[in-house]
Write a structure and sequence with these properties.
The structure holds two protein chains of two kinds. Chain A is mainly β. Chain A contains no helices and eleven strands. In chain B, the strands form three sheets. In chain B, strands 2, 5, 6, 10, 11 and 12 form a six-stranded mixed β-sheet that branches. Classes of the chains: A mainly beta, B mainly beta.
Amino acid sequence: DAEITQSPRHKITETGRQVTLACHQTWNHNNMFWYRQDLGHGLRLIHYSYGVQDTNKGEVSDGYSVSRSNTEDLPLTLESAASSQTSVYFCASSESSGAGFETQYFGPGTRLLVL
Amino acid sequence: AQKVTQAQTEISVVEKEDVTLDCVYETRDTTYYLFWYKQPPSGELVFLIRRNSFDEQNEISGRYSWNFQKSTSSFNFTITASQVVDSAVYFCALSESTNAGKSTFGDGTTLTVKP
């Protein structure tokens, strides 16, 4: 069955370190997204991609970067981790259709703690 | 800019009670999609329903029903005869056709169903 996976599921790091969170989907979806979820809040969009070599900034992109070298993967990199980036990170993917968007399917999330 | 408001932060009911979760949205687009997701204590995000802006027909699926009213920009979600397993955080989300694939989420409503 097609799925979307994230790794690691839990990560503890120190301030200033570079961290990369992996996202892999086997749906063959063109669209992929990264969100963060902070306690008591909904999801906020960090970066997104509509296809290979395409990346776009979301509403909270500062301090994060992504790259899309193939359809299946969209790794999220924290260039220099900060305590404010302690959060739960969700990756999602969706088809691209004539309507422009479809339902997003989410990975299980990565809990990141920056000390 | 699009916005989703879930005014109810927390709701607590006793099992078998009916409960309605409110969602109010703002958008300038005439074409958009609305979603409800469930996030149980395990943390994953589970897709529940998607409605497009041209389809105001209300929907019932088992114990779940949704009331979409464009006139009041609301997309409310009702659980009939609630069960303990319904305890979760419920998120309403909005995607506009001009921001293909990107969703704006409300802050969520935490539903607790007591036995």
